[in-house]
């Protein structure tokens, strides 16, 4: 179950949002009465309520908005109990002062916005002594290991426990709590009005993650990155899982570089079956894999890991997707030396460019690399026996293929382009790995000149479809995935990122 927190300044607005949520399927709401900017009328909020309610009134010291006296706050909480509210949220330091009364159920809560303490179990034991019907613990996550500790606590608890890790690192705990047996998780009414760090909106929880369908048997997939909040992979993979009604969920995992080793060890305990891998882990993840496909060895980077009984297998679908997209646009088959005699210039020397240089050289193209950091161009060129050119000279050569592997032109800098339109030729194939917007300035100008064009969205969907096949053994619903992404990156919903 999802409990949706509502915090508005007026009773009328709070009631309206409550009604709207119930119409959308919500079964439990938390009314944050500390947000109301006038005298609180519990009767107006509770009479004829359309679904069960938690009344919560947070002090400023607990990151709430209550500015009145503590005596008046506790009086308000007692009055809510007398009014017969379904649940009352009581912080651990006052739970012993407010006795049980009537049918109202008691949530005894503790919030720690600094850390996830090492003594979680001892804290939980103490809260259980305060006559709770439900225990709630919310702490700040600084490591992915905090999520596992919190979820294990939820799973082992004898008294129903809501355990949440806050912050971007803690986001998985909000989704996986259903898999570990929590009575509910928390969401906010709208993604722009979060009440705690890392909180999802109700629509995100229901439409993207299908939270209500998650159970102990749900298989877990995800993307690991740092940062990870920009990733659109959860949107398209969960849409594909939902299309086939698979009991699987795909989650963003923010994993700092120094935590990769411990995170991989914890994957089986979290129920993780496979991962998409992006910056900064594409190279380091290989050390955790027992099977590595040829492309991963050649590139020195993986973007997909599947956990199997014999160990982990590493793949690179960026390479396959990029090459097939370009060859298809050029009317060529993916056969050896398909690009023999073709000259290509790649702008940028990052992770995507590495996969592209490998693929282009493998298919016989003559590759030149131009990067704003020339030392990185030189390093990449030595690895794949390519050439380099100074960044300022990138538009001077004669090339059959032009590939942008930089973020230039990405939202919000949509008026930027990495290549002078006057140097474009109608005979060229132009590939921009940026997918937001799909029609970058480079793509628009290339089409105006008459070039064959491959967009970043083409590559992104193709690599995700290949990942889906590795995850499930089934062909991906690529068109569904593409339309889900296009809707999300429309003008009203900008998103950054050029890879999974």
Automatic annotation (TrEMBL):
<keyword id="KW-0456">Lyase</keyword>
<dbReference type="InterPro" id="IPR041121">
    <property type="entry name" value="SDH_C"/>
</dbReference>
<dbReference type="GO" id="GO:0003855">
    <property type="term" value="F:3-dehydroquinate dehydratase activity"/>
</dbReference>
<feature type="binding site">
    <location>
        <begin position="231"/>
        <end position="233"/>
    </location>
    <ligand>
        <name>shikimate</name>
    </ligand>
</feature>
<dbReference type="InterPro" id="IPR046346">
    <property type="entry name" value="Aminoacid_DH-like_N_sf"/>
</dbReference>
<feature type="binding site">
    <location>
        <position position="318"/>
    </location>
    <ligand>
        <name>shikimate</name>
    </ligand>
</feature>
<dbReference type="GO" id="GO:0004764">
    <property type="term" value="F:shikimate 3-dehydrogenase (NADP+) activity"/>
</dbReference>
<dbReference type="InterPro" id="IPR001381">
    <property type="entry name" value="DHquinase_I"/>
</dbReference>
<feature type="binding site">
    <location>
        <begin position="30"/>
        <end position="32"/>
    </location>
    <ligand>
        <name>3-dehydroquinate</name>
    </ligand>
</feature>
<feature type="binding site">
    <location>
        <position position="5"/>
    </location>
    <ligand>
        <name>3-dehydroquinate</name>
    </ligand>
</feature>
<dbReference type="Pfam" id="PF01487">
    <property type="entry name" value="DHquinase_I"/>
</dbReference>
<keyword id="KW-0560">Oxidoreductase</keyword>
<dbReference type="GO" id="GO:0019632">
    <property type="term" value="P:shikimate metabolic process"/>
</dbReference>
<dbReference type="InterPro" id="IPR006151">
    <property type="entry name" value="Shikm_DH/Glu-tRNA_Rdtase"/>
</dbReference>
<comment type="similarity">
    <text>Belongs to the type-I 3-dehydroquinase family.</text>
</comment>
<feature type="domain" description="SDH C-terminal">
    <location>
        <begin position="456"/>
        <end position="486"/>
    </location>
</feature>
<feature type="active site" description="Proton acceptor">
    <location>
        <position position="282"/>
    </location>
</feature>
<dbReference type="InterPro" id="IPR036291">
    <property type="entry name" value="NAD(P)-bd_dom_sf"/>
</dbReference>
<feature type="binding site">
    <location>
        <position position="174"/>
    </location>
    <ligand>
        <name>3-dehydroquinate</name>
    </ligand>
</feature>
<comment type="pathway">
    <text>Metabolic intermediate biosynthesis; chorismate biosynthesis; chorismate from D-erythrose 4-phosphate and phosphoenolpyruvate: step 4/7.</text>
</comment>
<feature type="active site" description="Proton donor/acceptor">
    <location>
        <position position="111"/>
    </location>
</feature>
<keyword id="KW-0028">Amino-acid biosynthesis</keyword>
<dbReference type="GO" id="GO:0008652">
    <property type="term" value="P:amino acid biosynthetic process"/>
</dbReference>
<comment type="function">
    <text>Involved in the third step of the chorismate pathway, which leads to the biosynthesis of aromatic amino acids. Catalyzes the cis-dehydration of 3-dehydroquinate (DHQ) and introduces the first double bond of the aromatic ring to yield 3-dehydroshikimate.</text>
</comment>
<feature type="domain" description="Quinate/shikimate 5-dehydrogenase/glutamyl-tRNA reductase">
    <location>
        <begin position="338"/>
        <end position="388"/>
    </location>
</feature>
<dbReference type="Pfam" id="PF18317">
    <property type="entry name" value="SDH_C"/>
</dbReference>
<keyword id="KW-0057">Aromatic amino acid biosynthesis</keyword>
<dbReference type="Pfam" id="PF08501">
    <property type="entry name" value="Shikimate_dh_N"/>
</dbReference>
<comment type="subunit">
    <text>Homodimer.</text>
</comment>
<dbReference type="GO" id="GO:0009073">
    <property type="term" value="P:aromatic amino acid family biosynthetic process"/>
</dbReference>
<comment type="function">
    <text>Involved in the biosynthesis of the chorismate, which leads to the biosynthesis of aromatic amino acids. Catalyzes the reversible NADPH linked reduction of 3-dehydroshikimate (DHSA) to yield shikimate (SA).</text>
</comment>
<feature type="binding site">
    <location>
        <position position="463"/>
    </location>
    <ligand>
        <name>shikimate</name>
    </ligand>
</feature>
<feature type="active site" description="Schiff-base intermediate with substrate">
    <location>
        <position position="136"/>
    </location>
</feature>
<feature type="binding site">
    <location>
        <position position="294"/>
    </location>
    <ligand>
        <name>NADP(+)</name>
    </ligand>
</feature>
<keyword id="KW-0704">Schiff base</keyword>
<protein>
    <recommendedName>
        <fullName>Multifunctional fusion protein</fullName>
        <ecNumber>4.2.1.10</ecNumber>
        <ecNumber>1.1.1.25</ecNumber>
    </recommendedName>
</protein>
<feature type="domain" description="Shikimate dehydrogenase substrate binding N-terminal">
    <location>
        <begin position="223"/>
        <end position="305"/>
    </location>
</feature>
<dbReference type="InterPro" id="IPR013708">
    <property type="entry name" value="Shikimate_DH-bd_N"/>
</dbReference>
<feature type="binding site">
    <location>
        <position position="199"/>
    </location>
    <ligand>
        <name>3-dehydroquinate</name>
    </ligand>
</feature>
<feature type="binding site">
    <location>
        <position position="435"/>
    </location>
    <ligand>
        <name>shikimate</name>
    </ligand>
</feature>
<feature type="binding site">
    <location>
        <position position="58"/>
    </location>
    <ligand>
        <name>3-dehydroquinate</name>
    </ligand>
</feature>
<feature type="binding site">
    <location>
        <position position="456"/>
    </location>
    <ligand>
        <name>NADP(+)</name>
    </ligand>
</feature>
């Amino acid at each position: 179950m999802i409990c949706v927190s509502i915090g508005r300044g007026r009773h009328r607005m709070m009631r309206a949002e409550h009604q709207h949520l119930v119409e959308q399927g919500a079964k439990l709401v938390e009314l944050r009465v500390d947000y109301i900017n006038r005298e609180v009328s519990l009767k107006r909020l509770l009479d004829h309520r359309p679904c069960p309610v938690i009344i919560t009134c947070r002090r400023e010291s607990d990151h709430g908005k209550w500015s009145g006296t503590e005596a008046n706050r506790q009086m308000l909480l007692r009055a809510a109990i007398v009014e017969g509210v379904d649940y009352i949220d009581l912080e651990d330091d006052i739970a012993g002062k407010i006795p049980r009364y009537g049918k109202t159920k008691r949530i005894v809560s503790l919030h720690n916005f600094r850390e996830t303490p090492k003594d979680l179990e001892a804290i939980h034991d103490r809260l259980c002594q305060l006559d709770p019907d439900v225990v709630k613990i919310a702490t700040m996550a600084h490591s992915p290991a905090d999520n596992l500790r919190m979820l294990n606590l939820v799973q082992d608890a004898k008294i129903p426990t809501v355990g949440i890790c806050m912050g971007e690192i803690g986001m998985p705990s909000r989704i996986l709590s259903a898999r570990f047996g929590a009575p509910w998780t928390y969401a906010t009414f709208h993604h722009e009005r979060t009440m705690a760090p890392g909180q999802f909106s109700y629509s995100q929880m229901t439409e993207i993650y299908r939270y209500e369908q998650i159970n102990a048997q749900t298989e877990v997939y995800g993307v690991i990155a740092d940062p990870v909040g920009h990733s659109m992979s959860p949107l398209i993979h969960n849409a594909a899982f939902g299309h086939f009604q698979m009991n699987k969920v795909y989650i963003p995992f923010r994993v700092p570089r120094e935590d990769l080793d411990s995170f991989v060890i914890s994957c089986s305990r979290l129920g993780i079956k496979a991962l998409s891998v992006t910056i900064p882990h594409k190279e380091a993840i290989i050390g955790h894999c027992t099977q590595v496909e040829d492309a991963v060895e050649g590139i020195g980077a993986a973007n997909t890991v599947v956990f199997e009984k014999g160990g982990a297998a590493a793949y690179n679908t960026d390479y396959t997707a990029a090459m097939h997209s370009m060859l298809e646009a050029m009317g060529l088959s993916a056969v050896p030396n398909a690009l023999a005699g073709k000259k290509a210039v790649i702008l940028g020397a990052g992770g995507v460019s590495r996969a592209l240089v490998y693929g282009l050289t493998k298919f016989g193209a003559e590759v030149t690399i131009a990067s704003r950091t020339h030392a990185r161009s030189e390093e990449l060129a030595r690895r794949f026996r390519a050439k380099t050119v100074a960044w300022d000279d990138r538009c001077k050569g004669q090339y059959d293929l032009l590939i942008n592997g930089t973020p230039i032109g990405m939202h919000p800098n949509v008026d930027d382009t990495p290549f002078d339109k006057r140097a474009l030729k109608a005979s060229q194939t132009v590939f921009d790995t940026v997918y937001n917007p799909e029609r970058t300035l480079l793509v628009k100008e290339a089409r105006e000149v008459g070039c064959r064009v491959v967009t970043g969205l083409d590559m992104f969907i193709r690599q995700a479809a290949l990942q889906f096949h590795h995850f499930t053994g089934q062909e991906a619903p690529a068109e569904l995935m593409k339309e889900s992404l296009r809707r999300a990156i429309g003008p009203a919903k900008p998103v950054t990122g050029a890879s999974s």
